[in-house]
Amino acid sequence: MNFLSATLSRVKPSPTIAMTTRAAELKAAGRDVIGLSAGEPDFDTPDNIRRAGIAAIEAGHTRYTAPDGMPDLKQAICAKFARENGLAYAPDQISVGTGGKQNLYNALMATLNPGDEVIIPAPYWVSYPDMVLLAGGTPVTVETTLETGFRLTAQALDAAITPRTKWFIFNSPSNPTGAGYDRAQLKALTDVLMRHPQVRVMTDDMYEHLVYDGFEFCTPAQVEPGLYDRTLTCNGVSKAYAMTGWRIGYAGGPRDLIAAMRKIQSQSTSNPCTISQWAALEALTGPQDFIAANNAVFARRRDMVVKLLSAIDGITCPVPQGAFYVYPSIAGLIGRRSAAGTRIDTDEAFATALLEEAGVAVVFGAAFGLSPCFRISYATSDDALREACTRIADFCATLT
């Protein structure tokens, strides 16, 4: 009898965490390593939000709340959806989880049966397919291309849908590419979905506010109201509010789905951290001006990184519309050999050699389902980014 569940064999550890861990190990051993693998802002949580957390402690708000979020926070989330997305949700249509990932996972656990398919455009956030597998479903990845800006086309979506398709996971702006869908591009996808009433839509809008160059964010149920009853609109405070460690995500959707998610959460984690909920309430209702200021910094870093990487022979780096990632192609480097003798036959080999030989930690494209590429997070200092790009250029120059 095996001690570990057979379910565990269907999933793998997060490659982004693995690269970050390896970089930390090298640093601990005295190596000079620049880490560009972790996906979190380098800004501190704004003062007013931190003070709200402290005030919650001092006021004694340290007890359990409802399993999927306290009423005041749910009301604030409803107001946010109405104000920013034109979506009308009532508090009993809202779920608050321990980070954005929990809402996605709860929804999949609540709805998937063996044989159910979930369409996931590639490249994708590394956790999507494994969460589907854990929930007993079948991930169906649909590759995008550099030529389409890593955006899924309506034709590709339509071709991937079968009678077994239950969910379509949609992420814009994207992790790992930063690609955003404008209203017309998203409308083409929602038109396809309207022809397939059995397919529900799960959005990951975590990077909603991190957009550049006048890009206007929109979400599926906002673009196509006919999808409202079939959409779980997921978001959170982690990225825009620099609250990754506070672990608060939220979702709005149909009452029956939210009730099912609540049942799972009540028997697993129960309520998210009470203090974090009070901080998230301040994040959603307090001043928002710092977001534009932070975005200006991110946009400057993006432009610098894209320019420096694009100047490297063998690398093609598209300009992202949002988030804080670039996803360059290294198709022109495949088949070469590093100075230390490593053959660059995959993007994983490239990322490993880059870390071991040049001291730069990135995440290889195969982890996100589309090769040969790699992901850089530019949520770090200008100096670190400039030095990292210099090291990447020097490393690539030695490839033969």
Brief characterization of the structure:
With 400 residues, this protein is α/β, with parallel strands linked by helices.
Unreliable residue stretches:
none
Compute the number of strand runs. 14
Q: Which structural class is indicated by helix and strand composition?
A: alpha/beta
Indicate the radius of gyration in whole angstroms. Answer: 21 Å
What's the structural domain tally?
2
Q: What is the chain-wise order of helices and strands?
A: HEHHEHEHEHEHEHEEHHHEEEHEEEH
The 3D shape can be described as globular
The top-level CATH class of the largest domain is: Alpha Beta
Known CATH architecture of the largest domain: 3-Layer(aba) Sandwich
Helix content: 25-40%
Question: Please, what is the CATH homologous superfamily of the largest domain?
Answer: Type I PLP-dependent aspartate aminotransferase-like (Major domain)
**Terminal residue distance:** 51 Å
Q: Please work out how many helical segments DSSP would assign.
A: 13
- As a percent range, the share of strand residues is 5-15%
Mean pLDDT: 96
The profile of the biggest β sheet is: 7 strands, mixed
